[in-house]
Amino acid sequence: MITITITITIVFISPAISQPNFGCSNKTRNYTANSIYSANLQHILSSLPTDDRIAEGFLNISYGEGSNRVNAIALCRGDLTQEVCRSCLGDSVLELPIGCPDKKEALIWYSNCMFRYSDVRILGVVQDTPTFWIWNLEDAKDIQGFSQVVQGLLAQLAGEAALRDSKLKFAAANVSIENEDYSSVYGMVQCTPDISLSQCFNCLQTLAEVVQTWCPGKIGARMMRPNCNLRYEIQSFFDPAAVSGVSRSTPPPSPPSPLSSISPPHLSPNTSTNAEEKDSKRLKTVIIIVLPVVVVVVLVVLIVSIFIFLRARKQKVGVTGSEVDDTADLETLVFDISTIRNATDDFSDENHIGQGGFGAVYKGTLVNGQEIAVKRLSQNSMQGGSEFKNEVQLVAKLQHRNLVRLLGFCLYEDERILVFEFLENSSLDKFLFDPLKGQDLDWGMRYKIILGIVRGLVYLHEDSQIKVIHRDLKAANILLDAEMNPKISDFGMAKLFQDDETRRNTNKIVGTRGYMAPEYAIYGAFSNKSDVFSFGVLILEIVTGQKNSSFYQEKNIDDLISYAWRNWREGTALNVVDPILRGGPSNEIKKCINIGLLCAQEHPADRPNMDTVLLLLNSDTITQPILSPPVDFMNRKPKSDISSPERSGSHVVEME
Description:
This protein is an alpha+beta fold. The chain folds into four domains: 3-118, 2-Layer Sandwich (Killer Toxin P4, Chain A); 132-242, Gnk2 domain, C-X8-C-X2-C motif (Killer Toxin P4, Chain A), CATH 3.30.430.20; 331-421, Phosphorylase Kinase, domain 1; 429-654, Orthogonal Bundle (Transferase(Phosphotransferase), domain 1). Helices cover 33% and strands 20% of the residues. The chain is built from 14 helices and 27 strands. The strands form eight sheets. Strands 2-1-8-11-12-10-9 form a seven-stranded antiparallel β-sheet, with helices on one face. Strands 3-6-7-5-4 form a five-stranded antiparallel β-sheet, covered by helices on one side. α3 (143-163) runs antiparallel to α4, α9 (443-463) runs antiparallel to α11 and α11 (528-544) packs antiparallel against α13. The N and C termini lie far apart (59 Å). The model is unreliable at 1-17, 245-287, 309-328 and 634-656 (pLDDT under 50). This is Cysteine-rich receptor-like protein kinase 10.
């Protein structure tokens, strides 16, 4: 069987999947042969194969102190014997230092085990790189039907593995399949036991989505990340004896009721009757005694809860008597209006650094010398009290290096003010669309910005405690710090989704012309795929250095997405690239154009999730052709005429 293995740094054809795959960190953290780190690493490498804890299939071990501390994790496939596990890890500790010489962070994958080490903490830390892909070149006869079977199997296994205990997050099974030359599909998934249930499920779900997107109908595939892996084949590859409930040809039995697992004693008929009568009398007595007590307890709890709620509501009063509901635990973020005025020199013109659709932004300096950015909402702003509270509550809960950090807020009479960390380089659009400043953005800088935006969106959509849809992602809302690290800002239009919520409809369209997904601009339907579409437009703007809203090609008015698509289809994709980037890495630039067009697909189901985008950006794979042409915005209009203030692209439109 011929398979293709794709890693972050290597693309090669491999005749067998038993060969190791290496993930060598490209960071500059190297060690020398006679260093303390080298000695600590050798200690772990020599002791790991004989460690008794390998019997459980997972082992984490650390040795050393400070910057010379080595942290290691070893994982064996859940169906393997202890002997096979030891043998695989024995090979791993020998091969990894050879495959990744002098690296302080490295990983090796075999088909039976994984071993990795690092000078930073890795236990319980979810990482999306490196990623290895292996798939069979052969397609199933019924590609769509086969893909549906595979996805169903992988989804069920992901749930089973995530729900396992902390020692083994592993599941394997097979499912019958019709209309093919083979009778079953066999699947296996596994996570490292150190991550949580949700982290395991999300990790496996991401891999399954990549399989569905990039390997539809392939009769076999494997995907591996540091914290999870999956595999499916048309031949059995795991030990059925080591896996419970292997066959899925029939529905799995329903779980027993809580009492069904307790077998009653064997009684004669008469004894059974007498026992039933006694039990019935005893039950009536218990009910007579317990029921009133339960009622009293419930009433007391209810009264106390109401009292606590009313008292807490009464205490939720903001600055100068302005009531702000649902802002509990935000007291430490409250700024006094005098502090804000002193910091900004009473909102002087000299400190005015920006203007948005909802008000002005000022630079300020606190008494301790800390620089701040002050967003002062205009009194006639379309962002009312609800939008203000929305932004305060959302941003205060979100903590990520690629999200702007909220320092506090102020409510005083008609003033509504937000205080953020000050970012020296303002917003991305100030660089991207300026002929002079744009020259400072070489491809390395732009690629760094793209990756940072993606990581921020992955956090909002998947990794944060609350699932957030931004709804106004654009270059003006990407701020840059002194090192040009991007931070997503302006959450006034954001929406909070429940864990099981995937889509919502609204009659109030908010966002920016040119960045809004067609299903949102036309029908008011939005989801995480709406942000994906906006990112698709944004990444094309970063590559081309052109605004989507003001893009012209020769004498024909053409939006940026259509222009990029036409050149991609004609094989001239590099024609759309910013001239400043000419001579840059063409494969990486074309990959970003490809991803941008994929994210800007007309139908939400055809767009990838942001964690899949991150996976693609971190891999040296050649992305697949675009599924279909982009939406023709020139001939499609929303239900309402969307107009926005000339000085800002943001708007709120009530649809009829």
